[in-house]
User: What shape does this take?
Amino acid sequence: WRRNHRNTSCVIMSNNMQFMLLFSRQGKLRLQKWYVPLSDKEKKKITRELVQTVLARKPKMCSFLEWRDLKIVYKRYASLYFCCAIEDQDNELITLEIIHRYVELLDKYFGSVCELDIIFNFEKAYFILDEFLLGGEAQETSKKNVLKAIEQADLLQEVRYVIKPPWEQ
Amino acid sequence: MPAVSKGDGMRGLAVFISDIRNCKSKEAEIKRINKELANIRSKFKGDKALDGYSKKKYVCKLLFIFLLGHDIDFGHMEAVNLLSSNKYTEKQIGYLFISVLVNSNSELIRLINNAIKNDLSSRNPTFMCLALHCIANVGSREMAEAFASEIPRILVAGDTMDSVKQSAALCLLRLYKTSPDLVLMGEWTSRVVHLLNDQHMGVVTAAISLITCLSQKNPDEFKTCVSLAVSRLSRIVSSASTDLQDYTYYFVPAPWLSCKLLRLLQCYPPPEDGAVKGRLVECLETILNKAQEPPKSKKVQHSNAKNAILFEAISLIIHYDSEPNLLVRACNQLGQFLQHRETNLRYLALESMCTLASSEFSHEAVKTHIETVINALKTERDVSVRQRAADLLYAMCDRSNAKQIVAEMLSYLETADYSIREEMVLKVAILAEKYAVDYSWYVDTILNLIRIAGDYVSEEVWYRVIQIVINRDDVQGYAAKTVFEVLLHEPSKFGRWFGSVLLGRPLVQFNLLHSKFHLCSVPTRALLLSAYIKFINLFPETKATIQEVLRCDSQIRNSDVELQQRAVEYLKLSSIASTDVLATVLEEMPPFPERESSILAKLKKKKGPGAVSVTELDDSKREAGELNGGADRGPDTASTPSPSADLLGIRSAAPVGAAQTNAGSLLVDVFSDSGCSHFPFPLLPIHSLFVLLPICFHPCFVLGLSLHPCPVLWPPSSAPPSEDPAPPLSEADELLNKFVCKNNGVLFENQLLQIGIKSEYRQNLGRMYLFYGNKTSVQFASFSTTVSCPGELQLNVQSKPVEPLVEGGAQIQQVLNIECITDFCDAPLLNIKFSRYGGALQNLTLKLPVTINKFFQPTEMSSSDFFQRWKQLSQPQQEAQKIFKANHSMDTEVLKAKLLGLGTALLDNVDPNPENYVCAGVIQTKGQQIGCLLRLEPNAQAQMYRLTLRCSKDTVSKRLCELLAQQF
Assistant: This one.
């Protein structure tokens, strides 16, 4: 078996992560991030199917499952499910920790994050995710660095750059 | 962290979200949303120019509505306006809206690109990152066109901030995936590779994803990354847990980067440089060692991160497949995980072991865990884990444990989750076939499979079983007997076997079969009808009964058009055709050619390309060879069945008159098409079969279908050979000898090509259909064939040129018209030339099996006539005699079939010794008729024969004697 020879020849366009979904125990989608181009219709179909599949699983089951030709890695934090789709050759455990790191980032930013924070500040949840993952790949894994970037942005919120930004003075 | 002004004071947004959450019903929610949409629309359309804040707020509301799952068809322009706002927060919301809701409105894309361009050149790192995130999120072709050349510059520029570099690297990766043709690294290559040395771990983490992807496409250009990756990995692996500060995750140093480094190395073979290799092996050993150390934290994050690296290292070890020591250590480590309390680890260990099972170094080590894996299959509560266990059992299966594994899988099937049954069935079928030592086991297994999971047994499985049973004389008897017995007790599930595996006392058998007819599905009934007509052919005593069945209204007036057509045509065929014609039409199928198992193909299809390994395929080809007996078949197994296999004694019921029809033949359905396009002969619907009948037989067989126009003699092949024809193959004579007593079959087969033959002769004329099958998946180009008559050969062979292209897996047909001028000894030569991939020319010459006996007309005569003529041919040179040892079975029926196949009449009651055989015939040539008499005297005790020929022409006696001595 030359699993990886295979990769080199045919999975050039592989994405580490295909998409990430956050949904509640009631099946309400709270955040969706797609790293592969798909039509809205297809996205809705995937979401519906996957939410159903994951919600049907029992607590002690393993965090990975094969779904279509993808691997699904998911974990539940309180009332929220975090669910990532990766490709066949990708690393499940490290993806599980990607989820955890993202939860940590949210937690640190909001201070004991709960589902409501993500509902009411969904745009922030997206900004944090973009600092952490870009195009489905880890961009910055240091918690400190990601939060620094977000903090900086928050400080800039209402600043008007009429002349020069502060760091260029 | 400032107690952030979360929501940026967008009170209106918060109120709206609360309203939505308070909605008691879906209808109320939709009502509230429509109200809001109307409000926003009116604001956007209003005369009053909106300020930035309001615009941001409304755009944000639209985004929220979209994320709730509603369609948004406006607001894009307002979002684009926000991009050029000089307030960061407005810009940010604008970009978010674009990222989530982009559509390929070209006008808009131009505006968006413009805004991005401004931000990229702003030299404000925060703005640059926003712009880069947007490109990476959208990743459209238009964006690639606009920015693919700019971003590499930003990535490697000395004064770019680290955070911008990180975004630029991943942005470029996304563009490369969208439009690889637009991202040209060229001059940047080496500077990008050296990002692996960057001081900032975040930059390395981002850059390595880009480098990995580029290396997969251009491994040579990026190969310097190997040594850099090894040293980076080595530094991380040997660092103390605190060295990397914030890049340490739960006491594990840089787990994400480590995994990515190990993944990058999997794009390359093991390093050639000894020092680099040594360092890498050291790293891998350290990682394996660390797995044995006590955990530094009880947190699951610690063990997950650590094990993530371990599994990635094991993947690399498996990828190299060259370090037996590491492979075995990896296997032992995974063995420990098999019994771990964490379900996740058990799952991954099973998955990873699957790949280890295929390495020759670790296959045995994996096998030692068989009991644990079987236990997992039985006791794991999670179906996805059980599935991994089943996969691993499949992967570790070999001859030594096949029986145990197949038994376990079968018993698991009884309770298996519905979602995985079909795949399990395929796997059991493949293993049973691949590792069948005795065929009774194989047949039992497959029958069990059908019994346990009948509904999940796909067409491919039973096609394959039939293929195997057909190709193995020695399993046919057992298969037939078993199925027969099962039929008596458990009819419904075995419908598919009916049409194919049928033996037993003819009428009993027929009645049994027909008693289940009404229980069967339409396709099965169609198979059954075909089986019935074959009954008539093989067992004439059943004719009346079967015709009665066909004639009844429920058949010839059946509402299903396929069934009706079959019934009508078969009835007609059975009443009009003579036994000879019937025998020709319903002649036994030739053995299936060796080819990839249809079930393996199905499994591959199911699992996606690449899911079945290369070695597995090779194995299966090899094994299929053994099973199908394709390549290994003795030259004559088809016509010399081993008596021991004949459990039901059917073989003795040899048909009379049919050339070489094997009485013990299993009945293959000639109509199976989808998924089962048997190679050597086109298995088309019935009318195609009629088309194959020679026109000279009887016009009434047309049955309303047009025949081929009677071919005129075509001009000889015009394509001039570009190379001299190769000399005939060394085995050409042997191949020729196989066809002396039969007219149809596979003439030649190798890895690339299969040549099948169907031929018929009448008087001094013959017609031969050649079927050239391309066994590969690639096209044959410049395909040409030439028939030549060496020396003085007095044959006139006309052929039509063949199509120069033969697609992979396709078969083309060529018709030869043959005229015998005078008697001859040598065979005409068939030269075939073609090339693959435009490469070297394949040049192959065979002898066409046209032998003088093909032009025999049988002559019936009485004993006295025979002896009178025998005496007349008394000149010494008119007689040829040979005494030789029996090479094949001396069974009466077999001998008779061969002599009939020779083309002569077999005369009873002529020779005073009933053990002897005498035959008479006239060879028709254009110029003359040559009378021939033959006498064959077997001596069973000595296993010898004496063959005597007397012909009116001495050369014919000699030639016939030579030819025939090879046949018995």
Remarks:
- Confidence is low (pLDDT under 50) at residues 1-13, 160-169 of chain A.
- Chain A touches chain B through 83 residues (CB under 8 Å).
- The beta strands of chain A are 17-24, 29-34, 64-67, 70-77, 80-86, 133-134, 137-138.
- Chain A has six helices and seven strands.
